[in-house]
């Protein structure tokens, strides 16, 4: 498995998908060397992992690198995963750790909204509509979206990871605690402080 893993897995010529299985069954098959099962795991979670990496790092190139490195590590280590049912939290943990490593190695990235006008609103844009008084403002006003992304970019690393995983990716607080290897109280505290800072920064736009 080389650095073109993500490209190969998403290519049309990838292995035929096995019959539908739940995630745990797919992990067990992948641990036995089933390439089709591994490919299906990739297809199931790569989009959400890419979205998380992009919004943590602020650019597509770094997000691509993180996604590829995530699945290289998954491929190399999946056989040693003791709890197949913990696959999702494990793969998110790898992605978050790689994102944090990238941010430590490089100058702080400037966030920009996704350039997807022809594809409809992004997952992030749709999530932010929950926070403002007029949801259509987010989708129509790029300046407002830039203000929201900038506010999140300025959060401390763990608060940023928590707010993105909970509000954008829809992960439960319990799963976030597993991903970050911290207590549920820590997750709740980070989420509380992140929301408080966002409310202060975006008070002009927030719902009453």
How do the helices and strands line up, and which of them pair or pack?
Layout: H1 5-10, H2 23-31, H3 35-57, H4 60-77, H5 87-105, H6 123-128, H7 135-140, H8 142-153, H9 157-168, H10 173-180, H11 184-201
Description:
- By secondary structure, the protein is mainly α.
- The protein folds into two domains: 108 residues, RNA polymerase sigma factor, region 2, helix turn helix motif (Rna Polymerase Sigma Factor, Chain: A, Orthogonal Bundle); 99 residues, Arc Repressor Mutant, subunit A.
- The chain is 66% helix and 0% strand.
- The protein is built from eleven helices and no strands.
- Helix 3 runs antiparallel to helix 4 and helix 3 crosses helix 5.
- It is globular, with a radius of gyration of 18 Å.
- 29% of the residues are buried.
Q: What descriptors fit this protein?
A:
mainly alpha, about 65% helix, about 210 residues, Rna Polymerase Sigma Factor, Chain: A, Arc Repressor Mutant, subunit A, 11 helices, single chain, 2 domains
Contiguous helical run count: 11
**Total number of distinct structural domains:** 2
Task: Give the end-to-end Cα distance, rounded to a whole number of Å.
Answer: 52 Å
Low-confidence stretches: 107-121
Helical residue percent band: 55-70%
Spell out the CATH superfamily of the largest domain. RNA polymerase sigma factor, region 2, helix turn helix motif
CATH hierarchy: architecture of the largest domain: Orthogonal Bundle
**Major beta sheet, specifics?**
none
- Radius of gyration, taken over Cα atoms and rounded to an integer in Å: 18 Å
